[in-house]
Design brief:
This is Costunolide synthase. Keywords: Heme, Iron, Metal-binding. Heme binds at residue 146. The structure is a single chain. Strand 2 (84-86) and strand 3 form a beta hairpin. This protein is mainly alpha-helical. The chain has helices spanning 2-25, 27-41, 49-52, 56-68, 101-104, 149-157; strands at residues 76-79, 84-86, 89-91, 96-99. The radius of gyration is 18 Å and the shape is elongated. It has one domain (1-157): Cytochrome p450. The chain contains six helices and four strands. Strands 1-4 form a two-stranded antiparallel sheet.
Length: 158
């Protein structure tokens, strides 16, 4: 149990470090985020859960940060159950296969300007951290995905 909390807090702190780095390098994104936070806090010192759910740009900044800087760049380890060919490469049964999440999340065939920080790409989309179509998999996908996704992202939002 302690390992799960440690992993979640490490992920949150690393996420915040990268988010601050990207926001400082992209002042226009920082300004949009500041405006959103100010709009929802309305002079109060803190954000509540009710307002947090409505902060779309904050969620987009978190997704974009995790797309560019995944906490685990090689998140998917699987073992083939039979001999298969993938893109012309033969993979024998019982071979360990590792998916490069970092490369997937910067794939120019899916992401426009994949190396640019553009949180807007996540506004008005259904792309989530579950990796349903393997375009955003900072926490892995399927049965092997990280069980602390919500813990790590919620901690960063607060």
């Amino acid at each position: 149990m302690q390992d799960m909390f440690t992993a979640g807090t490490d992920t949150s702190s690393t996420l915040l470090e990268w988010a601050m780095s990207e926001l400082l390098r992209h002042p226009e994104a920082l300004k949009k985020l500041q405006e959103e936070v100010r709009r929802f806090t309305q002079g109060r010192a803190s954000v509540n859960d009710h307002n947090l759910d409505k902060m779309g740009y904050l969620k987009a900044v978190i997704k974009e940060t995790l797309r560019l800087h995944p906490p685990v760049p090689l998140p998917l380890f699987r073992e083939s159950t039979q001999d298969v060919k993938i893109n012309g490469y033969g993979i024998a049964a019982r071979t360990q296969v590792i998916t490069n999440g970092w490369a997937i999340q910067r794939d120019p065939s899916f992401w426009e300007d994949p190396n640019e920080c553009r949180p807007e790409r996540f506004l008005n989309t259904a792309i989530d951290f579950r990796g349903q179509h393997f375009q955003l998999i900072p926490f892995g996908a399927g049965r092997g995905s990280c069980p602390g996704i919500q813990f790590a992202t919620s901690g960063a939002e607060l």
